[in-house]
Amino acid sequence: MSMQHITFDAKHLSRKHHSGVLSTQSTSMPGYPFGSVVPFYLTAQGDAIIYISDIALHTRNINADSKVSLTIFDADEDDSQANGRVTILGNAERVAAEKVKAQYLALFPQAKSYEQTHDFNFYKIRTERVRYIGGFGKIHWISKELWFVPQQDWHSNASGMINHMNDDHVDAMQAFIRVASGLYCGQPEMVSVFPEGAHYRCGEKVIYVAFHELCHTPTQVRQALVKLTHDAREQLGIKKAG
Known about the structure:
- Helix content is 32%, strand content 31%.
- It is α+β, with helices and mostly antiparallel strands.
- The chain folds into 2 domains: 3-149, Electron Transport, Fmn-binding Protein, Chain A (Pnp Oxidase, Chain A); 155-236, PNP-oxidase-like (Split barrel-like, Alpha-Beta Barrel).
- The protein is globular.
């Protein structure tokens, strides 16, 4: 398997799960790492966005030393040693809310209440290196050059694609969400689209559905969604209307 495929798999795991263990350099116990659980999402480029309080210990630690790691794994699986996990190592820095707030709240709407406390801010973990373990014997370092996806205009302006899917293709989303997750979603809502896949809200759950390959352009995203729909309908035995 090529490093490009390995990186693609690691990105899928990182987008499928929505919380991770943030490790910072302890200020109260110098020399020791301090771990805490935080929600996050990955930008299209591959940096992690977190929303944390100024009074939290991990924020104080970041302000003293920006070097952190974020470990992502499937907490629902029984054998944590045999399952995939990703550790992102990078530097955390505060980022302007207008650049990331809409996407964060689309994935974590409960975070809207944090704004009332006035001390929560967004931080970006700028990825320097990634450790990916895909199970026993599948252990890889991924460079930031491989992990990084160059900025494209549609990355920060995907609302047209999202609105189109939500307005016109509910049945398609129902089909490929069912195949990907085993769940029937009566009223799915696309809430994000990234080069590797997209997130859909189904009631209280957010489900990630991966594309078959990395998408660089809106046309490739459309083609990926068409393929997901075609494959899902074929698998479910759903005949195309008309």
